[in-house]
Amino acid sequence: MEKIRKGDEVVVITGRDKGKRGTVLRRINDQSLLVEGVNVVLKHTRPNPMKGVEGGIREKTLPIHRSNLMLFNPATGRGDRVGIRSLQDGTKVRFFKSSGEQVRA
Predict the structure, then answer these.
(1) What are the backbone angles phi and psi of residue 40, rounded to the nearest 5°?
(2) Which of 42, 51, 53, 96 is most buried, judged by most C-beta within 10 A?
(3) pLDDT at 1 over 90
(4) What average pLDDT does range 29-43 have in this prediction?
(5) Has domain 9-79 been given CATH number 2.40.50.140?
(6) pTM
(7) Neighbours of 11 (CB within 10 A)
């Protein structure tokens, strides 16, 4: 079970975009995530009339490593560490380590 999933709201804790919040759009692999509005760079593209591509400068969102992200806790308004525990019926759930309350999925 992953601690950060698609659709979660996360906070960047280190790097150029430190302090920004965004929603996880998708997982690239085990370590990298695509987060909305985070790690956005400018990409210069050449025109290619054969493919119908216009030239210019476009914004592109690049993946960010999961170690640079924390799950956003709405109760505290900050990023929080996440743990995984098993309930009595055998299902696994995520919980915030500071308060012990369950993460709303």
Answers:
(1) -90, 130
(2) 96
(3) no
(4) 96
(5) no
(6) 0.85
(7) 22
Q: How far apart are CA 56 and CA 45, in angstroms?
A: 5
Could you tell me if 73 and 99 are in contact, meaning their C-beta atoms sit under 8 angstroms apart? yes
Residue-wise pLDDT for 59-83, tens only, equals 999 999 999 999 999 999 999 999 9
Where in the chain are the domains? 9-79
Q: How many CA atoms lie within 13 A of 103 on its CB side?
A: 27
Q: Is the pLDDT of residue 105 over 90?
A: no
Write a three-state SS string for the chain. Answer: CCCCCCCCEEEECCCCCCCCEEEEEEECCCCEEEECCCCEEEEEECCECCCCECCEEEEEECCEEHHHEEEEECCCCEEECEEEEECCCCCEEEEECCCCCECCC
Average pLDDT over residues 16-42: 96
Owner of token pair 């806790």: 73
